[in-house]
């Protein structure tokens, strides 16, 4: 597979954002060729200083958390609260196709950067914003992170927490942020397509709350239909024992997902060496297995309990049916499917930076992942970008002297 990076070639994105959610959208566009100019405060994005699982500021090496959200961009460090800094931003926007921001509505309005103001000045601009709770309603100006807006308020914590647990389960890092960033990048791509047809820009909105609700669509459909939401409970009461998790002899797990139970029951029984179960009237069809689910689950528990994780995978690998091993995170990088499809990419080494690996964007074009590029250092491209915009060294010196750039 030859990496490609030209899908958004010629598109310029001006990103005024912090942390993860919105910067991830910029990184995905940069993966596919957009020129993403990241505006950072002279003190830097606070995410640069966040210690997180030994992959952030506490890594002792490359800040991989920051790299994942900012790869392939250029960084301009400038204080837009200063008049000269804001003028520089407006001049950049004259060359922009997309303005991408995570600032809250009140802050954007005070800076003269809200959607109405910018679209009046730049009618072809795609104005994209990511936020916690939406741009209308009583909480439109409330700060929102993925753990609060997505995981807590969006119902994900409640959906994933076992009923016998005293406290809600904790989320993994930036789950909502990275899913929301994917949605925001999709919205920007659609707005660019529309602009190509009409010449007009659009306002694109994605919230972490809405992202959580989309993620939980099945549960929401149950609620919207006026039905009681099912909760995890007794495995023996499952309506289809062929869609469950089974423990192997060495304490690992296998996930069966055979929704068409009648189609797969006989093959599963034969693979497990239990052809006698095929004709067992308790399990003869979907209705019978549902009526006798506890006995069916017990029979499958016994069979998988005889076999190791490796043996179970070998047995199930011999039938054409939907199932999967329940893998640990540390097994994913070496999964043959991950390797074959390039789902983890490598940022090449540079003079003072070692190579490192990052998850690739899930989207591929022409069966190829993008070639990954490193994230910029804080303000790395400040002077280069100012010179590209036509400013001279005297003006750059003035910006430095007044503290507008570092």
Q: Could you give a quick summary of the protein structure above?
A:
With 406 residues, the protein is α/β, with parallel strands linked by helices.
Descriptive account of the structure:
Helix content is 38%, strand content 12%. By secondary structure, it is an alpha/beta fold. It folds into 2 domains: 12-217 and 342-401, Rossmann fold, CATH 3.40.50; 235-328, formyl-coa transferase, domain 3 (2-Layer Sandwich).
Strand order of the largest sheet: 3-2-1-4-5-6
Strand percent estimate: 5-15%
Low-confidence stretches: none
Which CATH-level-2 architecture of the largest domain? 3-Layer(aba) Sandwich
Number of structural domains: 2
The assigned structural class equals alpha/beta
Q: How does the overall form come out from the CA principal axes?
A: elongated
Question: Can you identify the CATH superfamily of the largest domain?
Answer: Crotonobetainyl-coa:carnitine coa-transferase, domain 1
Write the element-wise H/E pattern from the N-terminal end onward: EHEHEHEHHEHHHEHHEEHHHHEHEEHH
Share of helix, binned: 25-40%
**What's the pLDDT, averaged over the residues?**
92
Oligomerization category of the chains in this entry: single chain
Examine the coordinates and then state which fold CATH places here, giving the name of the CATH topology of the largest domain: Rossmann fold
Q: Please report the first level of CATH classification, the CATH class of the largest domain.
A: Alpha Beta
The number of helices is 17
């Amino acid at each position: 597979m030859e990496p490609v990076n030209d899908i958004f070639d010629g598109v310029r994105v001006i990103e005024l954002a912090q942390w993860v959610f919105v910067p991830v959208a910029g990184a995905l566009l940069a993966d596919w060729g957009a020129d993403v100019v990241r505006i950072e405060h002279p003190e830097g994005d606070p995410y640069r200083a966040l210690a997180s699982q030994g992959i952030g500021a506490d890594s002792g090496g490359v800040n991989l958390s920051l790299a994942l959200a900012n790869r392939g961009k250029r960084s301009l460090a400038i204080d837009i609260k200063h008049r000269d800094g804001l003028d520089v931003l407006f001049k950049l926007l004259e060359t922009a196709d997309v303005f991408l921001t995570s600032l809250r509505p009140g802050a954007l309005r005070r800076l003269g950067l809200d959607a109405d103001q910018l679209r009046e000045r730049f009618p072809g601009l795609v104005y994209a914003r990511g936020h916690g709770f939406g741009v209308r309603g009583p909480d439109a100006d409330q700060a929102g992170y993925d753990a609060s807006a997505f995981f807590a308020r969006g119902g994900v914590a409640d959906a994933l927490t076992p009923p016998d647990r005293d406290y809600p389960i904790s989320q993994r890092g930036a789950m909502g942020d990275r899913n929301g960033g994917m949605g925001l990048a999709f919205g920007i791509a659609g707005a660019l397509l529309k602009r190509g047809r009409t010449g007009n820009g659009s306002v694109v909105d994605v919230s972490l709350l809405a992202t959580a609700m989309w993620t939980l669509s099945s549960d929401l459909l149950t609620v919207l239909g006026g039905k009681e939401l099912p909760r995890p409970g007794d495995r023996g009461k499952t309506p289809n024992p062929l869609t469950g998790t089974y423990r192997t002899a060495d304490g690992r797990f296998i996930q069966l997902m055979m929704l068409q139970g009648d189609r797969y029951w006989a093959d599963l029984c034969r693979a497990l060496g239990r052809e006698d179960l095929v004709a067992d009237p308790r399990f003869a069809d979907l209705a019978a297995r549902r009526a006798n689910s506890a006995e069916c689950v017990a029979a499958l528990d016994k069979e998988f309990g005889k076999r190791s994780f490796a043996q179970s995978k070998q047995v199930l690998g011999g039938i054409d049916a939907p199932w999967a091993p329940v893998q640990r995170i540390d097994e994913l990088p070496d999964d043959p499917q991950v390797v074959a499809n390039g789902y983890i990419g490598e940022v090449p080494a540079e003079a003072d930076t070692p190579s490192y690996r990052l998850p690739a964007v899930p989207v591929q074009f022409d069966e190829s992942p993008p070639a990954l590029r490193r994230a910029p250092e804080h303000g790395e491209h400040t002077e280069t970008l100012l010179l590209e915009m036509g400013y001279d060294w005297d003006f750059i010196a003035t910006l430095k002297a007044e503290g507008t750039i570092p």
